[in-house]
Design brief:
- It comes from Tahibacter amnicola.
- GO terms for molecular function: class I DNA-(apurinic or apyrimidinic site) endonuclease activity; oxidized purine nucleobase lesion DNA N-glycosylase activity.
- InterPro entries: DNA_glyclase_Znf_dom_DNA_BS (IPR015887), FPG_cat (IPR012319), FPG_Glyclase (IPR020629), FPG_N (IPR035937), H2TH_FPG (IPR015886), Ribosomal_uS13-like_H2TH (IPR010979), Znf_DNA_glyclase/AP_lyase (IPR000214), Znf_FPG/IleRS (IPR010663).
- The protein is of the alpha+beta class.
- It has two domains: 124 residues, MutM-like, N-terminal (N-terminal domain of MutM-like DNA repair proteins); 95 residues, Helicase, Ruva Protein, domain 3 (Orthogonal Bundle).
- It is 26% helix and 21% strand.
- The protein contains seven helices and ten strands.
- It binds a DNA duplex through helix 5.
Length: 270
DNA sequence: CGACACACCTGGATGC
DNA sequence: TGCATCCAGGTGTGTC
């Protein structure tokens, strides 16, 4: 369930358990993730102390003096810190053994995630073409408007393009467009500056709110429990095809855009 | 470049 | 109950 809020929640949850800890060993049970687990995870990481955990887009960078593991959770990945004695289960692909008797355990049924390596002083190629952080100062309605002028693609696909802005996945793209009153299939180049201002504001508001709500799942990193509960109740359109729009009562519709399900209200979004 | 289809993988829900 | 089909929160890659 990793969209940007979940990745940020993961970062915050891992921070107190990892920073200052030494990695003593790395156990790879299944190396074949989206890409093979980087060799450096086993040849360089053991012995290193974690200095910080950074999030860039939906990636996590675990900084050490010798380099930084670059992690992505894909569609189904999760990271937890557990006592080393807890037996690994199906799809627990990688363990980082820590110097306090715990392990950082990576579980990912679909294996779309990855564990790569960024050498000190370099920027990993996967991070090179990313757009601005949606919660940062470089992201604004004006920025979106400027970049979109010649674009014919649907505004939803534009918003989900990680070169345009990072971190907006299928759920939050639908929710932000709904909140901004913009039809997801509208050509990106035909959205006005004013409406992009609204859209940028809604993206920020919704992501920030979700991160705030994600905070309640921090305990999961020690004792796994249920899923974060914020979305089911708080989504306005995502996954609600056929159900009434919470504002106008009209039926929420579903269409496919860019091979992804897209939900919207035809009355509230133009 | 931009736009788009496809690929990667497993599991859960649904339908017959 | 068993089996086929469809769908899922991401994103790099290849083609036009």
């Amino acid at each position: 369930m990793p969209e940007l809020p979940e990745v940020e929640t993961t970062r915050r949850g891992l921070y107190p358990h990892l920073v200052g800890r030494r990695v003593t060993d790395v156990v790879v049970r299944r190396a074949k993730l989206r890409w093979p687990v980087a060799e450096e995870l086993q040849t360089v990481l053991p012995g290193q102390v974690v200095n910080a955990i950074e999030r860039r887009a939906k990636y996590l960078l675990v900084h050490t003096a010798a380099g930084s593991p670059l992690l992505h959770l894909g569609m189904s990945g999760s990271l937890r810190v557990l006592p080393a004695a807890v037996k690994p289960e199906l799809h627990d692909h990688v363990d980082w053994c820590l110097d306090n008797g715990h392990v950082l355990r990576f579980n990912d049924p679909r294996r779309f995630g990855c564990q790569l390596w960024q050498a000190p002083g370099t920027l990993h190629p996967l991070l090179q073409d990313l757009g601005p952080e949606p919660l940062g100062d470089d992201f604004s309605g004006r920025y979106l408007w400027n970049l979109s002028r010649a674009r014919k693609a649907a505004v939803k696909l534009f918003l989900m393009d990680q070169r345009v802005v990072v971190g907006v996945g299928n759920i939050y793209a639908a929710e932000a467009l709904y909140a901004a009153g913009i039809h997801p299939a509208r050509a990106a180049g035909k959205v006005s500056a004013e409406r992009y201002d609204r859209l940028a504001a809604e993206v920020r508001r919704i992501l920030a709110y979700a991160i705030e709500r994600g905070g309640t799942t921090l305990r999961d990193f020690i004792s796994p429990d249920g899923q974060p509960g914020y979305f089911e109740q708080e989504l306005f359109v995502y996954g609600r095809a056929g159900e009434p729009c919470r504002l106008c009562g009209g039926a929420v519709r579903s269409v496919t855009l860019g091979q992804r399900s897209t939900f919207y209200c035809a009355r509230c979004q133009r």
